[in-house]
Each structure stands twice: as C-alpha cells, then as structure tokens.
Design goal:
The complex is a heterodimer.
Chain A lengths: L1 E5 L3 H13 L3 E5 L2 H8 L7 E5 L7 H11 L6 E6 L4 H9 L4 E4 L4 H33 L9 H17 L3 E9 L2 H8 L1 H18 L5 E6 L2 E7 L3 H16 L3 E3 L2 E3 L3 E9 L6 H17 L5 E3 L5
Chain B lengths: L14 H7 L4 H28 L2 H17 L3 H16 L2 H30 L1
The chains are: A alpha/beta, B mainly alpha.
C-alpha cells in the first residue's frame, strides 16, 4: 500500500518514512503541503496520507480541505500528525476533512494501529465500489449473453439519435432475429439454445466496430446501433453481420448447429425526426419483410422510403 | 545495540524512549542525529531572527519546528523550552520568550557539541 507523508521537518519525516517502510508501506515523502495536494490529487495518487499540521504553503488542514474538494469521488484516508493537542485544534483538524489525528512525537505501535484502521476503511470502500459496479453491470447487461440489455440498448438509441441530429450525421439500427430458433430449443433443449444465443452474441460483437453497440432485445432478437453508418452503406453492413452469424456452424453440447438470421434495417439521417418508438416499429416491419422473403436475409425500411 | 555508545547523549535525550521509536535501529538513530546536526543551526537562526524582528507569528512557527525536531528524538528538556517559546509567542509574551531563549541557547549549544562529538566518534 502506498502512503504519502508530508512534513517540513527533516527528522520527523525520515523517522516516519523508515517506520512506515518497515511496516511494509511504499512511502512517498514530501516536505510541503502543496506537493502533498499534487500527489494526493493524481488519478492514481496514494489513498492514505499522514500530514503534519504546520507546513509551508498549505498546512495540514488546508491539504485536507483541498484534497476533499478535488478528489471527492474517491476516499483518501487523511491522518493529521501534530503536536497541537488541544481539543479546539483537534476539532479544527477533523472539521477540515481529516479522518484521524495523531499526536507528535508518535508512538510507532499506535501509528501502525491507526493506519490499519485507515486500511480497513479503504477496503470497505473498495468493496462498496465493487458491489456498486457489479450491480450497475447487472442492471445494464443481459445475464446470459453479457450483451447490453433491452433497456440499455433502447436508451442508447435515444442518445445516439440526439447526437446524430446535433452533428447532422447518420445512424443505422439493425434488428436481428435468429431463424427457427424455437426449433433449437424444442429439439435440443434450452441449454443448447442458450449456447447458441451466447455464440451469436460473440459473433455480433466481433462483426461491429468498437464504437457500435450490440444488445439483446429479447428472446432470440438482438438490436445493433451502428453509429455514423450511412444509409447507402447500411444494407451492406447488415449483410456482413448476417454472414458473420451464419459463417460457420455453432459448437454446442449437442454438436454443430447451423444458424441463420433475418435482419431488419433502418438508416437515419441527421435531419430526420423519428422517435425511438418509430425506429423500433420500422425495423420490426423490415424484419417481417425479411422473414417473408424466405429468411436468412436483410431488408431495409426507411421512414422516408 | 550498545546503549553505552549513546552515553554522552543521555543527559539530553530519553534514550529508552527514542530507541523504541526507532525500533532499536542504531543506524537510523545515527542518521537522525546527523539530520539534527545539519538542521539545528538553521532552525536556531530562524528563531533568533524572528525574536530579533519581534515577529510573533514567525517565532511561533520556528519554535514549533524546533520543538517537533527535538521531541522526535526525545530531547525532552529542549523540546519543553521550545514549547514554552511557542506558547509565549502565541500569547505575545516577549519577556517569557527572551527568558526562555536565554535557557534554550546554551542548552542547544551543549546538545550540538555532544551530537557533533558523537557523530565524529561514530565515524571512527
């Protein structure tokens, strides 16, 4: 664990540095408050700090205030190290944003124990952040395929439409539906169907650019958002995607299965004013036309066709 | 660790206390004493200048730094004198500052000599 120590007094600084190195910390030592703020506010700056109260430029409480202001989103555990020991001083220190304080000269065991407390708090924060990120992922992704879920991909269409209009650009939306997928589930069982859905998800991701989006719209339907894909190119892109799905049989627990898909395509220009609902209706109609045309093909349908 | 090495410093320093603080590391203690030897004249000059100018804020700050350095090495009497100057500066009590300085200066001079001799001996 990295720790920053800030003290303008050379003996204290060296003593602290050595004590903390012995305790297994990677120490960053600075001799004034400004340097402490700079280090602590770096994106990957240390998350644990021991700050002397009286220092040139920024004193300890000023460092605490500045760090809290600049790095509010991620907790940094700040301990003031001071020979000021009146209750008023302690209150001022804690109210400036310090988490703890230690009276100088420090007792090495107490110092280590207080830092362990800080580490426990940081660990707790890490766990909370991890849990929040996991929940956020679950809320936005499909549990089976790990693609974006329906709510997220629909929201993305809305966002991309706004951007497309603002930039007077273009966007293509593709609705993909696997052909005769019900037969896969009925014949080989849902676990095999799930394998197929996962593999198709991977193939879809592999067939688009890094700035395109792929989501599972529901069942065996997938929705793709191809940013800056012009109308003249949208059908060709859709055909590439279709070819990627059917290019080779899918490996399943039940052996190789040939999978094809039908695709409904909609291309929007920046000046168009369609809503997400309009687009979903249009790609669904285009998909219906593709199914009616014998499946394993793409059909484009424009509001302005 | 041989405490007798530090016998000449024991009149200034609470040796058992400082040894706990350095975790019994005689090399580190020597290094800290060398830092003290290096920093002491500057700190003392700073304090003298502040007293000469009658700059209470600077006096408080210089005495605070002095106190911190001495206390880290358990040079407790010296630290207590510096603390008295710091408190007197906060209260604006120039009389007490000058009285305490009169006691601090010779104490620091003796300390400085002892530390210097110790460090010279340590090099042998």
């Amino acid at each position: 664990m990295r720790i920053l120590i800030a003290d303008d007094e050379a003996v204290s600084l060296r003593l602290l540095e050595k004590t903390l190195q012995r305790a297994g910390y990677e120490v960053i030592a600075v001799r004034n408050g400004r340097a402490a703020v700079e280090q602590l506010c770096l994106p990957e700056g240390p998350r644990l700090a021991l700050l002397d109260w009286m220092m040139p430029e920024f004193d300890g409480p000023a460092v605490c205030r500045e760090v809290r202001k600049q790095r509010g989103h991620r907790h940094v555990h700040l301990v003031l190290l001071t020979s000021k020991d009146s209750k008023e001083d302690i209150v001022v220190g804690l109210e400036s944003g310090a988490d703890d304080y230690l009276i100088k000269p420090f007792d090495p065991e107490e110092l280590k124990a207080r830092l362990h407390t800080g580490l426990r708090i940081l660990q707790l924060e890490d766990n909370l952040v991890e849990a929040r990120e996991a929940m956020q992922y679950k809320a936005t992704h499909d549990a089976l395929t790990s693609l974006l879920n329906r709510g997220t991909i629909v929201e993305l269409i809305a966002r991309e439409l706004v951007r497309t209009r603002r930039e007077n650009g273009c966007i293509t939306i593709v609705l993909v539906d696997l052909d005769h997928f019900k037969n896969v589930n009925d014949t080989f069982g849902h676990p095999v169907g799930d394998e197929v859905l996962c593999e198709v998800g991977r193939r879809l991701l592999g067939s688009v650019r890094s700035y395109d989006f792929v989501g599972r719209f529901g069942g065996e339907e997938f929705l793709l958002v191809l940013s800056n894909c012009e109308e003249s190119n949208s059908l060709a892109r859709s055909e590439e995607i279709r070819a990627a799905i059917s290019s080779s049989p899918v490996h399943t627990a039940h052996g190789l299965l040939s999978i094809t898909a039908s695709l409904g395509v909609f291309a929007s220009r920046g000046r168009d004013t369609e809503t997400v609902e309009d687009i979903l209706r249009v790609v669904d109609s285009a998909l219906y036309v593709a199914k009616a045309a014998g499946r394993n093909c793409s059909r484009i349908f424009g509001l302005h066709a | 660790m041989m405490n007798w090495e530090y016998a000449s410093l024991e009149q200034f320093m609470n040796l058992p206390e400082v040894l706990v603080r350095v975790d019994g590391d005689s090399e580190l203690l020597r290094e800290l004493l060398a830092l003290l030897d290096e920093e002491l004249p500057g700190l003392l000059d700073g304090l003298h200048t502040a007293i000469h100018r009658g700059d209470l804020r600077e006096m408080e700050s210089a005495a605070h730094a002095f106190k911190g350095m001495l206390a880290s090495l358990s040079i407790n009497e010296g630290a207590a004198l510096a603390a008295t100057i710091e408190a007197a500066a906060r209260e604006g009590d120039m009389l007490r500052i000058k009285e305490t300085q009169a006691a601090l200066d010779p104490a620091v001079a003796k300390l400085s000599t002892a530390v210097g001799l110790f460090l010279a001996g340590a090099k042998d």
